[in-house]
Amino acid sequence: MRSGHRLGRQFGWLWGAYGTSALGTWLAFGAFPLIAVQALHAGPAEVAALSSVAAAVGAAVAVPLGPWVEFRRKRPVLIGMDLVRFAALLTVPVAFAFGVLSFVQLLLVSVVVAAADITFRAASGAYLKTLLPAEDLLVANARFESTTWTTTIIGPPLGGAAIGLLGPVATVVADAVSYLLSALGIRATGGQEPRPERREVARVRAGDLLDGWRHILADATLRPLLFNTALFNGLVMATDALLAVLMLGPLGFTPWQYGLAFAAPAIGGLLGSRLARPLVTRFGQHRVLVVAGTLRALWPVGLAFLGPGTGGLLLVMGVELGLIFCCGVFNPVYATYRLERTTTDRVARTLSAWAVTTKASTALLTAVWGVLGGLLGPRTAIVLAGVLLLTTPLLLPRRAAAPLTEPESESESAPSRA
User: Which residues cross the membrane (predicted)?
Assistant: First the structure.
């Protein structure tokens, strides 16, 4: 991103709000499993349910929210979802302080937060498309991506220190407050948001729930891209738990070494996100999308050669660095591509359907690979995932899509940039 490329005051507030909530999320990374184990004496099955079951149920809860969001102003929805996450998370330290915290409460809070996350992402993509002209979307998405990886580098070490000093509940408080600050930041964006086309919002019908998927599946470029991202993200996330078992168990790595193996390579995501726009300018959007999407699939199979000691640690760091760098290039390009291939009146439904699909597939593949890890051993299951990832480039769009024409509407013009 070139120095001095300004996207306006409104985007600045939105970007700041995103960074604040992202930092809070990474500060509290792993806090719920720790609370479940340390405070509630939960077993492995219960801990696994916090991530897999909660994500799946949260995705199901979010299904009707996509059509609901589509025909409402997006900024109030964003503020509302931040406040929902703030209130839900805050119940955990309050219940803990009064000695009434239960595993069921942790599970319910996880479901609410997962559903609010999906809804927020759908609304934020639609809001961004009304806030900025098309030529600035890649710059904006690259800045979000770089912020994601920056908070990934900073958040877990700070959160780990806070957990060591104050306990995991303290980081949940920090995460809750970050959503409150995010809501205040989004409120400060101000400006006049375009009205949705359907001024009087009717009750959501059963057919509306599938509108996002209909749009994706009818588009020759979005359809394979959805399958690619759902399979890729699901397989990568499914192997994370198995890799932890392998490294912290048979291979004898210490917790700090395990943390270093994943924290340090995040610098690759920061670098990749900063190169995304220059690469698109030079080589074109479609070529960068396909090349970066292909290269990111090649790295995980290298974990088949993981061994103990310094060599093994360097191998994991090298694999993660290459993988994350390619993802740092791919993610903002694909996010922009997806927005460009979706008309403004369908963005919220499309992004909601997309997030629901990827969340559900990740939960399913995590559960399946947990079973495979138990039957075949963690290393064999990791290798199998790496081999399957090599097939994901086949699901990338083969040809550049024709420009999309926005339908005629009576919506107000987008707010001008400062």
Answer: 12-35, 47-71, 83-101, 225-249, 255-276, 288-306, 312-330, 351-372, 378-396
